[in-house]
Amino acid sequence: MRILFITSTRIGDAVLSTGLLDHLMRAHPEARFTIACGRVAEGVFSRMPALERLIPIEKKRFGLHWLGLWAQVAGRRWDLVVDLRGSAIAWLLLAGRRAVMRGGRRPGHRLLHLAETLGVSPAPRPVAWFGPADAARAEALLPAGTPWLALGPTANWVRKVWPPDRFVTLARLLTGPGGALEGARIVILGGPGEQERAMAAPVLAALPEAADLLGVLELPEAAAVLARCALFVGNDSGLMHLSAATGTPTIGLFGPTPAAEYAPVGLRAQAVLAKGPPGAAPMGALSATRVAEAASALLARPDPVPLGETVA
After folding, report:
1. CA–CA dist 175, 24 (Å, integer)
2. What is the pLDDT of residues 89-98, one digit of tens each?
3. In this structure, which of 7, 27, 122, 258 has its CB flanked by the most CB atoms within 10 Å?
């Protein structure tokens, strides 16, 4: 069985789509998958079992990237084409079955919209794939012996970034005497590039004892690192979604973006919202004390967290 799966150009949306892939692999263990995604999201799928081919989509003017993709996949008859981009390409291919996600903004969590494309209920939770080499590097970078607190102080939009001093205060509250992760070591994660480095620089400067893994990890390595952490706290970002997918307790920080649509989803993941109108609140309206309280409660919680749970 051959399945073509067309998914997002962005890391966060790509991670959310992994739940559908995991569902399809379980339903069709003999299937082989071709994944078409944005180049920055390739690492989300590069260690996926049953992967036959990975096709990066490079956006071009006038939608010419779709023509390029069609040229690469039109020579085969597909048993199933899943198009989460809502394009016309699924209808231009030979396919036994097509599942095309409806475009446009809709109320409800993005994961529910993805699941509706295949009529799957309940919506399957995202997963994170990494290999033995990724796990070995993660173990070398984050040695066992003490728990690790991971911080994600960067994002692709400056308004989504929690003030750096709040991350520092939070780290002290959680790892200091009486904290939920007393004695834990700190690791700071983020993507490559000068913009990410500039966002994280104040946190790194204030926490010189922290391990600096900013921009040095491939996505499967980042997944392996996150899987070793006791807790991740970070801005609304692809890294936040990847952390939740590993099963690591994850706190996503939300202000000007809608947690109702993009809260992290995992067995132990939830969003903490800044005070103000949902999806339009300033990140400065979220205190470190409040986040520390939410994190402590999450760590003490024995039961799985419902999909898209938020702390207002």
Report:
1. 40
2. 999 999 999 9
3. 7
